[in-house]
Amino acid sequence: MSPSTPHSTALAAPGHAPLDRLNAADPATAYALLLECCGSAGWARRIVAHRPYPDVDTLLAAADEASYDLSADDLAEALARETASHPLDGEPGPSTLAAHTALRAAQDAYEQQFGHAFLICLDGHPPEHRLDHALAGIRARLENEPHEEWAVTADELRRLARSRLARLTADATGTTDSTGTVHAPAGHPAGAAGHAPAAVPAGRTCAAAYTPGARPPRGPAGPSVPD
Protein backbone atom coordinates (compact mmCIF):
# COMPACT_ATOMS: atom_id res chain seq x y z
CA MET A 1 0.00 0.00 0.00
CA SER A 2 1.21 3.50 -0.52
CA PRO A 3 2.35 5.62 2.33
CA SER A 4 0.37 8.56 3.44
CA THR A 5 1.24 12.11 2.76
CA PRO A 6 3.51 13.23 5.47
CA HIS A 7 5.07 15.81 3.24
CA SER A 8 2.25 18.28 3.01
CA THR A 9 2.02 18.12 6.78
CA ALA A 10 5.74 18.65 7.11
CA LEU A 11 5.62 21.72 4.89
CA ALA A 12 2.64 23.29 6.60
CA ALA A 13 3.37 25.53 9.56
CA PRO A 14 1.34 28.11 11.44
CA GLY A 15 1.38 31.37 9.56
CA HIS A 16 3.03 29.92 6.47
CA ALA A 17 1.45 28.69 3.26
CA PRO A 18 2.79 25.32 2.07
CA LEU A 19 4.00 26.89 -1.19
CA ASP A 20 5.93 29.51 0.74
CA ARG A 21 7.55 26.77 2.78
CA LEU A 22 8.53 24.89 -0.37
CA ASN A 23 9.97 28.05 -1.85
CA ALA A 24 11.96 28.78 1.29
CA ALA A 25 13.11 25.25 2.10
CA ASP A 26 16.80 24.52 1.77
CA PRO A 27 17.67 22.79 -1.53
CA ALA A 28 18.26 19.36 0.01
CA THR A 29 14.91 19.36 1.82
CA ALA A 30 13.00 20.58 -1.22
CA TYR A 31 14.77 18.02 -3.41
CA ALA A 32 13.84 15.13 -1.12
CA LEU A 33 10.19 16.25 -1.03
CA LEU A 34 10.02 16.59 -4.79
CA LEU A 35 11.48 13.12 -5.31
CA GLU A 36 8.32 11.85 -3.63
CA CYS A 37 6.33 13.42 -6.44
CA CYS A 38 8.52 12.15 -9.27
CA GLY A 39 11.46 9.79 -8.86
CA SER A 40 13.63 11.47 -11.49
CA ALA A 41 16.58 13.30 -9.92
CA GLY A 42 16.75 15.62 -12.92
CA TRP A 43 13.06 16.49 -12.58
CA ALA A 44 13.43 17.28 -8.88
CA ARG A 45 16.60 19.33 -9.42
CA ARG A 46 14.87 21.37 -12.10
CA ILE A 47 11.88 22.21 -9.90
CA VAL A 48 14.21 23.16 -7.04
CA ALA A 49 16.39 25.34 -9.27
CA HIS A 50 13.50 27.42 -10.58
CA ARG A 51 12.17 28.47 -7.17
CA PRO A 52 10.57 30.62 -5.95
CA TYR A 53 7.19 30.04 -7.56
CA PRO A 54 4.64 32.89 -7.31
CA ASP A 55 1.66 30.54 -7.13
CA VAL A 56 0.68 26.88 -7.39
CA ASP A 57 -0.44 27.19 -11.01
CA THR A 58 3.04 28.33 -11.99
CA LEU A 59 4.60 25.48 -10.02
CA LEU A 60 2.36 22.89 -11.69
CA ALA A 61 3.08 24.33 -15.13
CA ALA A 62 6.81 24.06 -14.42
CA ALA A 63 6.30 20.47 -13.28
CA ASP A 64 4.48 19.62 -16.51
CA GLU A 65 7.25 21.17 -18.59
CA ALA A 66 9.90 19.25 -16.66
CA SER A 67 7.94 16.02 -17.15
CA TYR A 68 7.64 16.57 -20.90
CA ASP A 69 11.41 17.03 -21.07
CA LEU A 70 12.28 13.77 -19.28
CA SER A 71 14.78 11.68 -21.22
CA ALA A 72 14.39 7.92 -21.55
CA ASP A 73 16.94 7.48 -18.75
CA ASP A 74 15.08 9.97 -16.54
CA LEU A 75 11.81 8.12 -17.08
CA ALA A 76 13.43 4.76 -16.35
CA GLU A 77 14.87 6.20 -13.13
CA ALA A 78 11.47 7.50 -12.05
CA LEU A 79 9.75 4.22 -12.89
CA ALA A 80 12.26 2.31 -10.77
CA ARG A 81 10.93 4.22 -7.75
CA GLU A 82 7.29 3.46 -8.39
CA THR A 83 5.49 0.64 -6.62
CA ALA A 84 2.02 -0.74 -7.18
CA SER A 85 -0.73 -0.05 -4.72
CA HIS A 86 -3.84 -2.04 -3.96
CA PRO A 87 -6.24 0.09 -1.93
CA LEU A 88 -9.20 -1.35 -0.15
CA ASP A 89 -12.07 0.71 1.20
CA GLY A 90 -13.41 -0.94 4.31
CA GLU A 91 -14.33 -4.59 4.22
CA PRO A 92 -14.39 -5.69 0.59
CA GLY A 93 -17.04 -8.03 -0.67
CA PRO A 94 -16.32 -11.09 -2.82
CA SER A 95 -16.53 -9.09 -6.04
CA THR A 96 -14.05 -6.51 -4.76
CA LEU A 97 -11.61 -9.17 -3.66
CA ALA A 98 -11.94 -10.83 -7.05
CA ALA A 99 -11.21 -7.52 -8.78
CA HIS A 100 -8.11 -6.97 -6.65
CA THR A 101 -6.91 -10.47 -7.41
CA ALA A 102 -7.44 -9.83 -11.11
CA LEU A 103 -5.61 -6.53 -10.82
CA ARG A 104 -2.60 -8.08 -9.12
CA ALA A 105 -2.42 -10.75 -11.80
CA ALA A 106 -2.68 -8.11 -14.53
CA GLN A 107 0.06 -6.05 -12.88
CA ASP A 108 2.34 -9.07 -12.80
CA ALA A 109 1.65 -9.72 -16.48
CA TYR A 110 2.25 -6.05 -17.27
CA GLU A 111 5.60 -5.92 -15.48
CA GLN A 112 6.74 -9.10 -17.19
CA GLN A 113 5.75 -7.72 -20.57
CA PHE A 114 7.05 -4.16 -20.26
CA GLY A 115 9.68 -4.45 -17.53
CA HIS A 116 8.38 -1.65 -15.30
CA ALA A 117 5.54 -0.83 -12.93
CA PHE A 118 2.09 -0.02 -14.25
CA LEU A 119 1.19 3.64 -13.69
CA ILE A 120 -2.22 5.21 -13.95
CA CYS A 121 -3.56 8.46 -12.57
CA LEU A 122 -7.07 8.08 -11.21
CA ASP A 123 -7.78 11.72 -10.50
CA GLY A 124 -11.36 12.60 -11.30
CA HIS A 125 -12.65 9.06 -10.78
CA PRO A 126 -14.82 8.44 -7.72
CA PRO A 127 -13.33 5.99 -5.21
CA GLU A 128 -15.87 3.30 -5.99
CA HIS A 129 -14.89 3.31 -9.67
CA ARG A 130 -11.10 3.50 -9.38
CA LEU A 131 -10.46 -0.20 -9.10
CA ASP A 132 -12.55 -1.01 -12.16
CA HIS A 133 -10.97 1.84 -14.12
CA ALA A 134 -7.46 0.71 -13.22
CA LEU A 135 -8.24 -2.87 -14.16
CA ALA A 136 -9.78 -1.85 -17.48
CA GLY A 137 -6.82 0.42 -18.15
CA ILE A 138 -4.15 -2.18 -17.51
CA ARG A 139 -5.94 -4.77 -19.63
CA ALA A 140 -6.25 -2.36 -22.53
CA ARG A 141 -2.64 -1.25 -22.26
CA LEU A 142 -1.36 -4.82 -22.28
CA GLU A 143 -2.30 -4.71 -25.96
CA ASN A 144 0.10 -1.83 -26.63
CA GLU A 145 3.41 -2.15 -28.41
CA PRO A 146 6.40 -1.30 -26.15
CA HIS A 147 6.97 2.12 -27.74
CA GLU A 148 3.28 2.97 -27.44
CA GLU A 149 3.15 1.97 -23.79
CA TRP A 150 6.32 3.91 -23.04
CA ALA A 151 4.62 7.09 -24.27
CA VAL A 152 1.43 6.36 -22.30
CA THR A 153 3.44 5.64 -19.16
CA ALA A 154 5.38 8.90 -19.51
CA ASP A 155 2.14 10.86 -19.61
CA GLU A 156 0.66 8.97 -16.66
CA LEU A 157 3.82 9.73 -14.68
CA ARG A 158 3.44 13.42 -15.57
CA ARG A 159 -0.15 13.41 -14.34
CA LEU A 160 0.79 11.56 -11.15
CA ALA A 161 3.66 13.96 -10.45
CA ARG A 162 1.35 16.91 -10.94
CA SER A 163 -1.28 15.43 -8.64
CA ARG A 164 1.26 14.61 -5.95
CA LEU A 165 2.72 18.08 -6.17
CA ALA A 166 -0.74 19.64 -5.87
CA ARG A 167 -1.34 17.62 -2.72
CA LEU A 168 2.06 18.58 -1.39
CA THR A 169 1.19 22.24 -1.70
CA ALA A 170 -2.40 21.91 -0.46
CA ASP A 171 -3.22 24.25 2.38
CA ALA A 172 -4.18 23.13 5.85
CA THR A 173 -7.82 22.91 4.90
CA GLY A 174 -7.07 20.40 2.21
CA THR A 175 -7.79 22.72 -0.68
CA THR A 176 -5.50 23.55 -3.55
CA ASP A 177 -5.41 26.02 -6.37
CA SER A 178 -7.82 25.94 -9.25
CA THR A 179 -5.99 23.16 -11.03
CA GLY A 180 -4.99 21.03 -8.07
CA THR A 181 -6.88 18.05 -6.84
CA VAL A 182 -7.00 17.58 -3.16
CA HIS A 183 -5.79 14.15 -2.59
CA ALA A 184 -5.24 13.58 1.05
CA PRO A 185 -1.97 11.75 0.95
CA ALA A 186 1.13 12.64 -0.77
CA GLY A 187 2.14 9.13 -0.16
CA HIS A 188 -1.27 7.56 -0.28
CA PRO A 189 -3.80 9.43 1.66
CA ALA A 190 -7.32 9.79 0.92
CA GLY A 191 -7.77 12.40 -1.68
CA ALA A 192 -10.76 13.89 -3.23
CA ALA A 193 -9.71 14.11 -6.78
CA GLY A 194 -6.39 12.49 -6.47
CA HIS A 195 -5.40 9.06 -7.41
CA ALA A 196 -7.05 7.28 -4.69
CA PRO A 197 -8.66 8.30 -1.48
CA ALA A 198 -7.77 6.90 1.82
CA ALA A 199 -8.34 3.55 0.30
CA VAL A 200 -6.02 4.37 -2.45
CA PRO A 201 -2.84 5.72 -0.99
CA ALA A 202 -2.07 9.15 -1.99
CA GLY A 203 1.06 9.72 -3.84
CA ARG A 204 0.54 6.44 -5.50
CA THR A 205 -2.88 5.67 -4.77
CA CYS A 206 -5.02 4.31 -7.29
CA ALA A 207 -6.79 1.18 -7.53
CA ALA A 208 -4.12 -0.49 -9.42
CA ALA A 209 -1.72 2.14 -9.87
CA TYR A 210 0.59 4.18 -7.85
CA THR A 211 -0.22 6.85 -5.46
CA PRO A 212 1.44 10.14 -5.84
CA GLY A 213 4.01 10.68 -3.23
CA ALA A 214 2.94 7.58 -1.46
CA ARG A 215 5.39 5.28 -3.03
CA PRO A 216 8.18 4.01 -0.94
CA PRO A 217 11.16 4.50 -3.18
CA ARG A 218 13.07 1.38 -4.00
CA GLY A 219 16.23 3.30 -3.48
CA PRO A 220 16.88 5.85 -0.73
CA ALA A 221 16.73 9.46 -1.74
CA GLY A 222 19.95 11.24 -1.06
CA PRO A 223 20.01 13.97 1.55
CA SER A 224 21.60 16.45 -0.80
CA VAL A 225 20.84 17.68 -4.27
CA PRO A 226 23.16 15.87 -6.71
CA ASP A 227 25.05 17.90 -9.28
Offer a quick outline of the entry.
The chain is mostly helical. Helix content is 49%, strand content 0%.
What does this protein structure show overall?
There is one protein chain. The protein has helices spanning 6-11, 18-24, 27-35, 41-49, 56-68, 72-80, 94-114, 127-141, 146-168. The longest helix has 23 residues, at 146-168. Helices cover 49% and strands 0% of the residues. By secondary structure, it is an all-alpha fold. It is globular. It is built from 9 helices and no strands. Helix 5 (56-68) packs antiparallel against helix 9 (146-168).
Outline the fold blueprint:
Elements (H helix, E strand, L loop, with lengths): L5 H6 L6 H7 L2 H9 L5 H9 L6 H13 L3 H9 L13 H21 L12 H15 L4 H23 L59
Helix pairs in contact: 3-4, 5-9, 7-8
How would you classify the helix and strand content by structural class? mainly alpha
- Individual helix count: 9
Terminal residue distance: 32 Å
- Strand percent estimate: under 5%
Low-confidence stretches: 1-15, 86-91, 171-223
Mean pLDDT comes to 72
What is the rounded Rg?
16 Å
Q: What is the H/E order?
A: HHHHHHHHH
Which features would summarize this protein structure in a list?
mainly alpha; disordered N terminus; about 50% helix; about 230 residues; single chain
